[in-house]
## 1
Amino acid sequence: MPVPRPLHLAAEIGGRPRYDAGHYTRLALLAERGNLDFITLDDSFARPGPDALAVLARVAPGTGRIGLVPAVTTTHTEPFHVSSAVATLDWVSRGRAGWRTAVSDTAAEAALFGRRAAAPHDELWHEAGEVADVAARLWDSWDDDAEIRDVATGRFIDRDRLHYTDFTGRTFSVRGPAIVPRPPQGHPVTVVDGTGAAARETAVRHADVVLVRAEDPVTARTCREEIRNRAAAHGRSPDQLRVLVSLPVELHTGADAVGLARLIADWYEQDAADGFHLIPADVERDLPLIVDGTVPVLQHHCLLRRFYPGATLREHLGLARPAGRYAARSPGGRHAPGAAGRYAQSAAGRYAQSPGGRP
């Protein structure tokens, strides 16, 4: 019996800081065994621990299907570097990357960098939206066919297929182009916790997946409808947006795991959400119960798939791969070379020295 509307399931795998990459790989593989769409790994400048994006880049080669979504703080960091790092994760994972935008609003975190004082929450989320915007523009600054990799002629890039972004925001400007080729997914999946008002405005403009917190299905359904309507008002297709309810879970037995499946099914059947982002109280205890208890019940009731429909996170979520925004500017997708051409020539010189045309 086919699933009438796919139920999307994700889980957070963070907790107390761990410095063993194998720990996170084991959790990711466990979630992959349960056919979860993606895992998230929380992060902030306010606590010790390894960088979430770097951790999941290490996890990527040890997994095969699960989506990988680290928290990435857009405050105090350079948007160009954020874009490059997320694109790199997409390449390392062969198209399974996402990123959850986060902001930093404390004086203590600002002091770590010494560049500027802490800013109000609304300003930080406006900046986060601009970072999401320019990241997408940088991912598009290489056409899909920009790479030539011709070692014999020393040409790595078609310089006419690189593009300026020429973005100017309130707190930064980026000219581009990117230094990383266009990611396998075109755009890695952008995830935003849209529970707060300022974050929600960023989410409806830029997110592919919006996380919301709600205590009952009626509230969740109201949030979902509002988010879809506001996205449509910005010219976006609501059907290319997924709204997931973030649920804290604390499971001690298989009977609690079955109860969670019943709750998910009940909320889902009331159109409360497109899926659920589960946040275990103790990930090493709760995630196995979710995978071995909650998931089979949902599968038995034909609410959750039994296999991955594709290879990329966008395919898991049923989201289209976006076309490059600059590729159609002129016939053949070509654009003025300028500085991009000079970059291409210097890059060819560097890359042509190694086998395969890459450093």
Note: Residues 115 and 194 are 27 Å apart (CA to CA).
## 2
Amino acid sequence: MIVVGGEALIDLVPVAQPPGALVPRPGGGPYNTALALGRLGAEAAFCSRVSTDGFGESLLAGLRAAGVDLSLVQRGPEPTTLAVPSLAPDGSAAYEFYVEGTADRLFALPEALPAGTRALALGTCSLALEPGASAYEALLRRESGRGLLTLLDPNIRPALIADPAAYRARFLGWLPYVSVLKLSEEDARWLGGRVSDWLAAGPSAVVLTRGAQGLVVRTREGDEYTAAARQVTVADTIGAGDTVNAALLHRLSGPAGPAGGPVDWPGVLAYAAHAAALTCTRAGAEPPYAAELSG
């Protein structure tokens, strides 16, 4: 099983008609990653705290439909976090957030993950907002110590980070517990570090997403592999990076993952690029199903 920890929220996505209208869609980087894993046919569980309000119910319904295990989901009466993306002409998104007093910030460390858990993924808002951030950090440290494959996607949201210097220092403290670090070029620039330094700190591989330029991975052994982005008509890029997370986890969490033997990085990256491209053809975070990637 692959466990994804982090927030579930509602994206209020702008639409063309009527002018100025916002349509609620399920979102949140970890939520999208768990949804994508389910659709890709992986055995996945979501680990979060979700509101009992109507938005929270709809979020869980989406995960159930994708076959995602919800036994690790905590519930609370606080409202669901809201995100309002603004779309650039190329489909890329910037976000404003409504997070005060929301349910996902009150996540508590679970006693244990299910037996048979092979991998854990964390990232995005959940690692920036207390008190939940400390609980997710404790989960990362504990499960890394148990030998799980861990994937970290910082997915930086500057509007949520009150003290950038403190966050950057905290990020470096996570790296000894991370197997695979995945981040965008924008994240890397904001963090201000170098891939070589991050690899020296702990991860066995760093995967960098570069938008229309595709993906690149560098490994601790000094190898580098790339995959070109697929040419598609882009509706928006919401959820594309989260789909990359899911594709990486799906392919890496088996016996041939970083801890178990050689990794076919060209094949892994090509699979991730294909999945992300399909997500970009749809409005909002709508990752593909396994059958769509079989061709």
Note: The first strand starts at residue 2 and ends at 5.
